Amino acid sequence: MTAAGAPAAEPKLLIVNADDFGLTAGVSRGILEAHRNGIVTSTTLLVNRAIPQAQVEALKASGLGVGVHLNLTLGTPVADPKRVPSLVNAEGRFVRDAREAAARAKPDEARIELGTQIDVFRGIMGRFPTHLDTHHHVGRIEPILEVVLDFARALRVPVRSQDAEVRSAARSLGLRTPDHFMGETGEQAYWSRERVLEQLAALPTGLSEFMTHPGYFDDELADSRYGRQREIELAGLTDPAATQAAKDNSIRLAHFGNC
Question: What is the CATH number of domain 12-70+129-254?
């Protein structure tokens, strides 16, 4: 409670988004656990992967906010590859490097593929996404940024903003997007227990997003540059101290659809 006449403290809202649902069965299982036993509130679905139906049903029943992890850098398109030749290599697969993928992409072909991914998401989930973000941050690079923002505007859903430039572009179109963004991937696991607690303690007012990558390591991640790190993130995000720190710092956990 605040004293009579004293201004109320500005709220601290936090979306903890776990990227890559559907990447592998172990990743999806870890994301569900990170929500059930930890502070993860949101996830984004890779729709060009084979996802066990049991995990789809578990996701629908979980209470997680679920967005689309729009993807132009992993695997194969969901649209007919003949319709999107600028998006694929000679083997018909996406180009792994995000900058190269964006540079070679024709905007109309990107619209075909990303629009088809959104349609596939609706077929899987039976509802619209809570938000849009992109795999390997390809959506922060033109011309893909414009395409993603156009879809967000058409769907009337929020988008991720990794930096001030993307945030400004989104808000210039009247799109909702968080005020602050934290998260990265690299050789070391980003969301260790120590970093989770540190960032919760220092969380600014307004709406923040933590981009996270929890999961269980499995054989399908053997060649991934961010494989075993996911289990460290899972441990950090489900540590009871994280849930307590959110309470102690008066942080309201939310997802893109209810904040």
Answer: 3.20.20.370
